[in-house]
C-alpha cells in the first residue's frame, strides 16, 4: 500500500495561526517538500510579505519577480506567477515579494476582495490538464488575521493550524477559530479545521507535554500523531534555501516532517471526491 496515496480530491490547505513564530512557514515548506518528494504534486503559495517560504524553497522573491501580489492586486494568472523549485519536480511555488505588504490596503477598493485568491486558484486549476493539476495546494499565511489571511480562508477547504508546544500556545486560538466560523457562515461554507500540528516540541520539558495533552484533549483526532521536535537542523535549513528534508534528511526534524506528511496524505486518501457540479436545468 502506497504510504503517500493520492487524495480523493485536490486539497487546498490553509496554514494559519495569527501568532508569529509558531512554525507556519516551516511546516508549509517541509510538508510541501515531503509530499512532493513522495510523488504528490504540490503547489505552495507564499502569502506572507516576508517571503520566508519563498526563501526556504530557494525561489527568488526580489521586487519585480512575478509573485502572488500580481495575482491578487493586478490581473496576473496564477500560472504566470508560479515558479518551479529545485527541491522536487513535483513542487511549485508562488513566491511573495515585499510588495505584498501593501496589498491589504490596495485590495480594500478591489471588487470581491476576499475572493481574489480563491478565483485565482480556481482559474489555475481549470486551465491545467488533469494530469498536471496539483494534488495539494498549501497556503502559508502571514501572522495576522487581516485581508490576506481572509483570502486564504476563503480559498481553502481545510485549515491546518500549527501549535507551538510553549507557554501561551492556546492564546489567540479562540479568535482564529471564531474567524474561521465567520468565514464558514458568510464566505466559504466549505472551510473547516482539518489538522492540528504540534511544533517545536521539546521532550525535556514537562511544559511541552502539558501543552500537547491540552491540545489533544481539546482537538482530539484533528491533532496529527506525529509531533515536530525542536531541532536545530530545521532552523538552519532555510539559510541554505532548503527544506530540512534536503538539508539533513536523517535529522529528527526531517523524519518527523515526513511522518506528519505521511499522516496528512493517509487522511487525504479517505476524502470523498468533490461532488460534480449539478446538471444544467433541462
Ligand atoms: P511562523 O511562520 O509561524 O512565523 P516559522 O516557521 O517562521 O514560524 O518559525 C519561527 C522560527 O522558529 C524560525 O526561525 C524557524 O526556523 C524556527 N523553527 C520552526 N520550527 C522549528 C523546529 N522544529 N525546530 C527548531 N526551530 C524551528
Ligand atoms: Mg511565517
Automatic annotation (TrEMBL):
Instruction: Quote the biased-composition stretches of kind Pro residues, using this chain's numbering.
Output: 274-282
Q: Output the superkingdom of the source species.
A: Bacteria
What region holds the AAA domain?
Answer: 11-192
Q: Briefly state the protein's biological role.
A: May play a role in septum formation.
Per the similarity annotation, which family is this? Belongs to the ParA family.
Q: What is this protein called?
A: Chromosome partitioning protein
Q: Which organism is it from?
A: Modestobacter roseus
Lineage per the UniProt record: Bacteria, Bacillati, Actinomycetota, Actinomycetes, Geodermatophilales
Amino acid at each position: 500500500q502506497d504510504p503517500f496515496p493520492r487524495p480523493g480530491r485536490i486539497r487546498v490547505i490553509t496554514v494559519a495561526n495569527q501568532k508569529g513564530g509558531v512554525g507556519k512557514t516551516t511546516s508549509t515548506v517541509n510538508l510541501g517538500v515531503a509530499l512532493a518528494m513522495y510523488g504528490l504534486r504540490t503547489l505552495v503559495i507564499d502569502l506572507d510579505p516576508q517571503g520566508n517560504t519563498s526563501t526556504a524553497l530557494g525561489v527568488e522573491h526580489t521586487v519585480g519577480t512575478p509573485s502572488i501580489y500580481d495575482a491578487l492586486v493586478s490581473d496576473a494568472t496564477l500560472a504566470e506567477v508560479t515558479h518551479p523549485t529545485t527541491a522536487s519536480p513535483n513542487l511549485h511555488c508562488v513566491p511573495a515579494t515585499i510588495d505584498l505588504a501593501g496589498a491589504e490596503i490596495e485590495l480594500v477598493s478591489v471588487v470581491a476582495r476576499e475572493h481574489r485568491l480563491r478565483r485565482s486558484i480556481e482559474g489555475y486549476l481549470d486551465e491545467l490538464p488533469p494530469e498536471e493539476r496539483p494534488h495539494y495546494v498549501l497556503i502559508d499565511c502571514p501572522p495576522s488575521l487581516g485581508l490576506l489571511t481572509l483570502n486564504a480562508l476563503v480559498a481553502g477547504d481545510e485549515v491546518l493550524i500549527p501549535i507551538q508546544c510553549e507557554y501561551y500556545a492556546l492564546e489567540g486560538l479562540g479568535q482564529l477559530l471564531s474567524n474561521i466560523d465567520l468565514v464558514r457562515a458568510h464566505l466559504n461554507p466549505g472551510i473547516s479545521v482539518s489538522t492540528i500540528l504540534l511544533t517545536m516540541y521539546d521532550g525535556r520539558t514537562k511544559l511541552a507535554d502539558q501543552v500537547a495533552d491540552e491540545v489533544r484533549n481539546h482537538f482530539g483526532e484533528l491533532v496529527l500523531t506525529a509531533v515536530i521536535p525542536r531541532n536545530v537542523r530545521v532552523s538552519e535549513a532555510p539559510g541554505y534555501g532548503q527544506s530540512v528534508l534536503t538539508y539533513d534528511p536523517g535529522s529528527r526534524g526531517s523524519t518527523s516532517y515526513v511522518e506528519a506528511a505521511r499522516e496528512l496524505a493517509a487522511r487525504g486518501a479517505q476524502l470523498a471526491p468533490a461532488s460534480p457540479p449539478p446538471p444544467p436545468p433541462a
